[in-house]
Amino acid sequence: MYGDEKRAELVAQAGLFIALIAVGGYIVIPMFPVPITLQTFFVLLCGCVMKRYAAIAAFLYVLLGLLGLPVFHQLMSGPGVILGPTGGYLAGFILAAAIVGFSYEKKSRYTRIFGLIAGTATITSCGVLWLFLSTGVTLSDAIIAGAVPFVIGDFVKLVAVFLVFQRIESRYDKNF
Q1: Given the DSSP bridges, would you call strands 36-37 and 28-29 parallel, antiparallel or unpaired?
Q2: 5-175 classified as CATH 1.10.1760.20
Q3: Which residue of 34, 48, 107, 158 is 20 to 30 Å from 92, comparing CA positions?
Q4: DSSP letters for 103-163
Q5: What is the mean pLDDT of each run of 10 residues along the chain (176 residues)?
Q6: Could you state, in order of their start, the residue ranges of all structural domains in the chain?
Q7: What are phi and psi of 29, to 5 degrees?
Q8: How far lies 132's CA from each of 3, 86, 126, 142, in Å?
Q9: Read out DSSP for 17-66?
Q10: Which residues does residue 76 pair with via DSSP β-bridges, in sequence order?
Q11: How far apart are the first and last CA of the chain?
Q12: Nearest-10 crossing angle of helices 109-135, 87-103
């Protein structure tokens, strides 16, 4: 009579997180070659909420941008963004969402914290690796430009995601 409520919930959550990740890309602190955005915050939070299915939302976000919807930072879209210096970070979103999602299927606080750290490290690692490969800079220069400036901000976002989800989970415990 009603349909699959779990599937409908996942579709709604995926749509919400695609929108949130896109909005997070509009909040930009310009830096060269990679700007600081709130996208990673929403990617990590997506993993917390959607669990293993978060990778689907992250993948669809990247796909929509690749197909031309202006969802990437500063209303950008298309294959040029994926192939440009920020493309590795975008690919890392998918892996990070999966890592955080699987870690949040466990109730262990330490597993969840490790998942957030691993997800953040995955985004940064993919970004640095692609920066190295796509721009021709040395690996040490890619690390200096693509990781070092973001360490403190990523740590703050990671802690914020952990605390925000704790609040969500305590308020809506039956669903998580």
Answers
A1: antiparallel
A2: yes
A3: 107
A4: HTTS--HHHHHHHHHHHHHHHHHHHHHHHHHHH---HHHHHHHHTGGGHHHHHHHHHHHHH
A5: 83 97 87 79 98 97 96 89 93 98 96 98 97 94 93 93 94 66
A6: 5-175
A7: -110, 110
A8: 48, 11, 10, 5
A9: HHHHHHHHHHSEE--SSS-EESHHHHHHHHHHHHGGGHHHHHHHHHHHHH
A10: 72
A11: 25
A12: 170
62 by Cβ neighbours in 10 Å (0-12 / 13-18 / 19+) ranks as buried
Token pair belonging to 123: 């985004």
Please identify which residue in the block is written with the tokens 């941008």.
65
Tell me the torsion sign for CA atoms 96, 99, 105, 109: negative
Nearest CA to 81 out of 37, 132, 89 is that of: 89
